[in-house]
Amino acid sequence: MKTLLTALLGIEHPIIQAGMGGGANAEIAAAVSNAGALGSLSSIAMPPEMVRAHIAETRALTEKPFAVNMVTWAFTSNWQEIIDTVIEERPPVVTISFGDPIPAFQRCKAAGLTTILQVQDTAGLKAAIEAGADAIIVQGNEAGGHTGRRSTLSFATQALELAGDIPIVVAGGIANGRGLAAALAMGAAGVVMGTRFKATNEFVGQQVHKQAIVASDGGDTLYDEINDIARGSLWPNRVTGRAIRNAFTAEWEGRAAELGAAVAQQTPRGFATARMADPDHQPNWGGEISGIITEVIPAAEVVQRTVSEAEALLRKLSAIQ
Ligand SMILES: Cc1cc2nc3c(=O)[nH]c(=O)nc-3n(C[C@H](O)[C@H](O)[C@H](O)COP(=O)(O)O)c2cc1C
Q: Residue 253 and residue 223: Cα distance in Å, rounded?
């Protein structure tokens, strides 16, 4: 499957594993890259030495291209240092999302890095086109983790109409060959998958969270600020997190103001720290496509299955008269 994305990145399959805060480390990034797609490391809220260590470890595990994902707003006070560190380390690919990604994008481009922007709304899309992103990931609302309010299908269609020669990569609601085939059929150059790669052996995360994704019917996710309010981190540009419902959301859904007051009464991050002791009270970021994820499998198998399913579907499609 050769697309503009595979040519740009020097990869075999047009699939990017999302940089996922907390769990996308060297093991999953290298497994995905070794399987011919693009693995990604996360960097959000990490000490810069840890970012460096993860990049070095990934380089030791694969000779293939991989990405480092950066989140460009003050999620933690060291966010600018993380950007400096990533630029110094010169990974093969950088993906940037959230806040105002353009200043970091310009720095990465000036340093000669292949730089992809993930966007959540039309203003972000137009800014990414204007800035000359190497590729643009359009992220729909059904995505797991933090995302905007646009639906994947209409947002991707709009991006394809506007972006000219810039490769468009679709994110949000894709976890198998059907999603990949659909994206390629509409003219996109590839896909990003997050939730599907969270439910893999390599992703560093609570087993109960992976099992909750497997158990999900796709209708039990919640797009709501309460998970962020509990951690004292409200995201910019109308971006909110989507997570699988759990004991925490059962307790606080619809009570954002009360939750805010409870958090304010505790020492900084005290509420979040107490909450983090119990996995069923931690945010289990995951998207609506959880409904088709039925097992935790190796990351390489996700790549192989997705590609072979998509190839079979696209062959059928090309046979339609
Ligand atoms: C557990 C999890 C953590 C995420 N963390 C990040 C992150 O740190 N940076 C980022 O740009 N996107 C993050 N995302 C969003 C992904 O980049 C991607 O857009 C999304 O997962 C695609 O939708 P899907 O989950 O339906 O595949 C995260 C997604 C998940 C599921």
A: 10
